[in-house]
Amino acid sequence: MFYEQWTYLAVFAVLLAAGLGLPLPEDVPLLTGGYLCYAGYANLLIMIAVGMVGVLTGDIILFSVGRKFGHGVLRSRFFRRMVHPGRLILAERLFARHGVKIIFAGRFLPGLRAMIFMAAGVLRVPFSTFILVNGFAACISVPTLILLGRFFGYKLEALKNEVRELTHLLVLVAAIALLITLGLYLHQRQKLLLAKAHLDEKIEIPPPPTDIAPPSPQAPADETADREDAA
Length: 231
Fold this sequence. Notes:
By secondary structure, the chain is mostly helical. The chain has 2 domains: about 1-150, no CATH class; about 155-195. Helix content is about 75%, strand content about 0%. It has 9 helices and no strands. The chain has helices at about 1-20, 25-40, 45-70, 85-100, 100-105, 115-120, 125-150, 155-200, 220-230. It is elongated and about 90 Å long.
């Protein structure tokens, strides 16, 4: 069907991007491809073939870059985004110790996989040796991961249902907690308003006096005595 083509294309694109430095293990798109087969969106054999092509394409690109530029990849601003100098040096040391066997092991080392394949190109490993050893390792890892996704897809379905139920439960608990918080806030607010109202009732401010006559001015004592003598 038409949507199957997009399914294969999406898995291939993610595998290629992961092989070229996307911070995502190749195991994730391979397991996802197996789950898509379980869900009926893809054919198992075609998905295994797409997985093999996607994985090996990214590996060959890394090998070719290392073979063409050598240690010059460390001076290139573009390739430095894909190449970690420390890991590349570590990969070269592993080659010096274990030889081409490290290519086989690199297929199962997500953190060093890209650097090992690029180091194989830098160290001028023959292309036939690289593709033979790496292809043999891919024939083990790629079908295994896709089959795991295919036959344990029901586990993912159960997990999705559990996550959905857990999400609903968390939303319900959050709603209840919000209502309780709102109720407590309103209750506390009401208590403060009532306390303020009772305080206003207890404090009585007396009205200012209005019937007290102002005091009359008194004459000086000397003037009163003079008036008595005159009389």
